Amino acid sequence: MSDSNPSKPVVLCGEERIDTLFRDTTAPALASTDRGAIAVVQDLLAGHGFNSMPGLLSPHRGTFGPSTATAVRTFQ
Hints:
Layout: H1 16-23, H2 35-47, H3 66-75
């Protein structure tokens, strides 16, 4: 039996800030200082083919820099 509640996400990611955004669309946007949440966004963007996202060992991982900003705008 499937859950027909459209406001409930199918899968949570485990990063509290991102999961909060899934649960509450009125929650404030991510802060640029929230490196864990930004890293999750970068991973999701990379999964959608944005190859300019910093990798796991990059010092830029979790930083909302120009490449991430451009990828987010393009994705939207």
